[in-house]
Amino acid sequence: MTDRMARFHSLEVTSVQQETPDCIVVGFRIPAAEQADFAFVHGQYLTLKLTVNGEELRRSYSICSSPLDKEEVRIAVKKVAGGRASTQLVDKLKPGMRIEVMTPMGSFTTALDPAKERHFVAFAAGSGITPILSILKTVLRTEPKSRFTLFYGNTDQDRIIFRSRLDELKVQHADRLAVHHILSKGADEDMLFNGRITQEKAVQLLKRFVSDPLDKEFFICGPEQMMVNVSEALEKQGVDKKRIHIELFTTPVTTDAKKATDHAHGDAGEFNGVAEVTVILDGREHRMNIPANGDAVLDAALDAGLDVPYACKGAVCCTCKARVVEGKVEMDMNYALTDEEVADGYVLTCQSHPRSAKVTVDYDQH
Predict the structure, then answer these.
(1) Phi, psi values for residue 150, rounded to 5°
(2) Torsions phi, psi for 176 (to 5 deg)
(3) What is the pLDDT of residue 77?
(4) What is the mean pLDDT of residues 225-235?
(5) Among residues 102, 103, 111, which one has the least CA distance to residue 42?
(6) Considering the domain boundaries, does residue 112 fall inside one?
(7) Within a domain: residue 141?
(8) Does residue 56 have a pLDDT over 70?
(9) Which of 247, 277, 312 is the last residue of a domain?
(10) Is this model's pTM higher than 0.90 or not?
(11) pLDDT: is 94 or 83 the higher one?
(12) Are residues 210 and 323 in the same domain?
């Protein structure tokens, strides 16, 4: 994974394929001069910037292609009810158009090693299959001794994104890839494959299909409740949390937020004043005053005219990640940074408020 600063580039749309009635797959051409900027690892996403009715919108979409496929980078976009960005993209995007695309981001991944023999297990639902497909294709080609099991939940057969591609991959890797479809409106004789993926169902699926002694890596992506169900099932099975990778598309509403404070420079006590905050961006320092109970560091920087990187503003992605090198800040929420990253001084600036009189935040140490 690269530690570059997130920047937007104007990319040409090379292909738009209708995957399901409400989902398209979009391919982008990456010019030779920008290949290094758009190098990505399996499981990462792209953030698109578009204008809808005069308003700038930023939305992140997972990459479904493998980094081993060099011809283009592809994402999947599923139309969301009431979704302004997804509706415009699905209804109006055509090959030849250009769109502002941020360089790849995200930590929903794991390092691969051709010498290892492991069992990768993924739970996906709906459009959550998008990063899983990139991971699956890359694992099968990079770790020839490893196997992959996918549990994929959808409403019905017609809503299965990448159904034909998954069928092709099953044929190509029959001895290493297993795909199990769970349909909420299904009528399978085996009730295990009908209904939603509950915690109990996840436990049953794991017991039936993932009982081998191989080292395992788990990936979960989809609606929030499904991810909570599967995570709890895995933890009840005694799976190490470091082996469980979760990708959130939207800010959670039912799980408790991970609130975190950066203690890299000691305890400043209760601070309720106006802090002098220095933002380091592209090697330059910018100073501003931010009240402890005022805007987040990211919003204050944007108001000051700084081109700081961001995508979701919801503590879900790591686009606005920066490192606190002086002082102390507190995050309202954190669903993206690991405990190790927080301990090392990294914060999500969209959630960060000063908790000391002087604070320095360095975006160049992304």
Answers:
(1) -115, 130
(2) -125, -10
(3) 96
(4) 93
(5) 111
(6) no
(7) yes
(8) yes
(9) 247
(10) no
(11) 94
(12) no
Asked if the structure places residue 3 within a domain, the reply is no
Phi, psi (degrees; rounded to nearest 5) at 27: -105, 140
Q: How far is it, in rounded angstroms, from Cα 95 to Cα 153?
A: 31
- Give the pLDDT confidence score for residue 187 in this predicted structure: 81
The two structure tokens encoding residue 62: 């997972």
Give the mean pLDDT of 44-61: 92
Domain residues for 294? 260-365
Question: Helices 224-236 and 199-209 sit at what angle, rounded to 10 degrees?
Answer: 50
β pairing state of 45-52 and 55-62: antiparallel
> What percentage of residues in the chain have a pLDDT greater than 70?
93
Within 10 angstroms of residue 185's Cβ, the number of other Cβ atoms is 11
CATH number for position 345: 3.10.20.30
| 274 has a pLDDT exceeding 60 | yes
> Which one-letter amino acid corresponds to residue 72?
E
In our burial notation (b when 16+ CB lie closer than 10 A, e otherwise), range 318-334 reads bbbbbbbeebbbbbebb
